[in-house]
């Protein structure tokens, strides 16, 4: 689906819909268009710059005003609905919470891990993180059709909401208790941080505890999706005992 024009794209950016790509007139001096493209980038959308001829050719309405958004149709789940469905089946809750992950390949890989491991759902922030786009769907290798992805406005508030429902939330980060020594049974959430930055300081404080993956090499960090996979399957191992 394609959305054209400044007002229409502004409304789109204020919604929960997933933006695959924003096409912007190259060299535009329109402040509104520049602001919208910056906001879209914060939302995790890919930005491409096209000359006027290419923009006019791409436009369906002929009134693009220098900005066109391409929207990926993906249905996000609601947290309350996901929790209610799991409790109805008497299943333990297990959430992977992504704190600002911006690489679509990481999100797609995490979705694949989550689906294979039987995770209750993946929670992602609305802003400053990647949404489910075509790349994510492709990398997930079909998992996007089966795993619950919940998009929220505020990760820390959502963590507090989970804690209020008895979910014990851990941040996967450095300087925590070794994951092998941590009880990962019961209702839990695992927070995985962004590429290069890890879990934010405020989110670390909001969590109930911090767990770490043992490191023995000279590189002291792992790819976000690799970290998610390692911690998730340690939880699976413990929960199957």
Describe the structure.
The chain has 241 residues and is an alpha/beta fold. The protein has two domains: 71 residues, Ribosomal protein L30/S12 (60s Ribosomal Protein L30, Chain: A), CATH 3.30.1330.30; 161 residues, Alpha/beta knot, CATH 3.40.1280.10. 37% of the residues lie in helices and 24% in strands. The chain is built from nine helices and ten strands. It starts with a strand and ends with a helix.
Helices and strands, in order, run as: EHEHEHEHEHEHEHEEHEH
Please give the domain count.
Answer: 2
Oligomeric state of shown chains: single chain
Going by CATH, what is the homologous superfamily of the largest domain?
SPOUT methyltransferase, trefoil knot domain
> How far apart, in Å, are the first and last alpha carbons?
47 Å
The CATH topology of the largest domain turns out to be Alpha/beta knot
Q: Proportion of β residues?
A: 15-25%
Q: Give me the count of strands.
A: 10
Key structural traits:
241 residues; alpha/beta; 60s Ribosomal Protein L30, Chain: A; Alpha/beta knot; 2 domains; six-stranded parallel beta sheet; 9 helices; 10 strands; 24% strand
What does the secondary structure layout of this molecule look like, with pairings?
Layout: E1 2-4, H1 6-13, E2 18-25, H2 31-42, E3 46-50, H3 52-58, E4 67-72, H4 79-88, E5 94-99, H5 104-117, E6 121-125, H6 134-139, E7 149-152, H7 155-164, E8 168-178, E9 188-193, H8 201-206, E10 209-212, H9 224-239
Parallel strand pairs: 2-3, 5-6, 5-9, 6-7, 8-9, 8-10
Antiparallel strand pairs: 1-4, 2-4
């Amino acid at each position: 689906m394609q959305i054209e024009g400044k007002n229409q794209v502004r409304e789109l950016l204020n919604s929960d819909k997933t933006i695959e790509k924003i096409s912007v007139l190259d060299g535009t001096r329109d402040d509104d268009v520049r602001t919208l493209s910056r906001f879209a980038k914060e939302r995790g959308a890919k930005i491409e710059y096209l000359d006027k001829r290419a923009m006019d050719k791409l436009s369906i309405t002929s009134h693009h005003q220098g900005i066109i958004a391409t929207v990926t149709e993906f249905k996000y789940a609601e947290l309350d609905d996901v929790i209610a469905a799991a409790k109805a089946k008497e299943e333990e809750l297990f959430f992977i919470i992504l704190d600002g992950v911006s690489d679509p390949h990481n999100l797609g890989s995490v979705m694949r891990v989550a689906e294979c491991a039987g995770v209750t759902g993946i929670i992602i922030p609305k802003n400053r993180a990647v949404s489910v786009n075509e790349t994510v769907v492709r990398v997930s290798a079909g998992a996007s059709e089966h795993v619950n992805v919940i998009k929220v406005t505020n990760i820390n508030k959502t963590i507090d909401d989970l804690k209020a429902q008895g979910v014990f939330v851990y941040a996967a980060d450095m300087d925590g208790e070794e994951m092998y020594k941590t009880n990962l049974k019961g209702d839990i959430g695992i927070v995985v941080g962004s590429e290069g930055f890890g879990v934010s300081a405020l989110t670390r404080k909001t969590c109930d505890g911090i767990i770490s993956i043992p490191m023995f090499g000279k590189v002291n960090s792992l790819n976000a999706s690799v970290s998610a996979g390692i911690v998730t399957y340690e939880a699976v191992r413990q929960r199957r005992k």
